[in-house]
Amino acid sequence: MSRITSSCFLAFALASAGCAHVPTEKERRSSEIHYDLGVQAQQHGAVQDALAEYQKALEQNPDNPEAHNAVGLLLHLSFRRLDEAASHYEKALKLRPTFSDARTNLGNLRLDQERYDDAIKLYEESLNDMQYRYGFSAQGNLGWALYKKGDTVNAVQNIKAAVTTNPEFCLGYKNLGIIYDETGKTEEACRQFAHYREKCPDVAEAYQREGVCQAKLGRVEEAKKAFATCESKAQPNESVLKDHCRSLLDHL
Asked: Which CA distances in Å does 78 have to 49, 99, 177?
């Protein structure tokens, strides 16, 4: 590169650096306020409002890792825009490499994409964070990723460890039930689905899964009770599940 070209490049780089906007303290505070408003909207189920607030948070401070993680979650779970969600998770991790929530969320996204090796690597990295309060979630999902790869023994071991760490971890019991059911261990599957129902008594699907399991064992009355409860517990946005439980009940 000639001296003239090098000088031009240096001038351009300095000019570009000079144009970069560093958020003021007022903008950072505004970003935090919009983030908090987004959390409140999300807690009330107002997904679009939450997304709008998180985007405002990023307009005020593009380097807000919590806002990137929150936008990633909404794009991932509510809007199914996976590539965009991944970009926000990755940005959050770039801004804060120790952000284990974002790393586990990115792992969950890779799990959804059936990129199991990538998901396992991310979960294992999260589990290296000894202060990560949701380590049980990363370990449970690590187990599920291992199961999808065909490693049933280590899958069960990890999910059992997750529900031991957090006995309220409903997804862990559900996934254990599915694994035992799919591997022909119906009695144990029913026990795990019963735990799922006990820990999440308002989740209609828990009754549906336990009912199907009980029906496989010929326990008709228990299955009928489970399907009837599933139908009564189904939420307005679970009409398909409600109809399915009604149909299962009618066929017993």
From this structure: 12, 22, 26
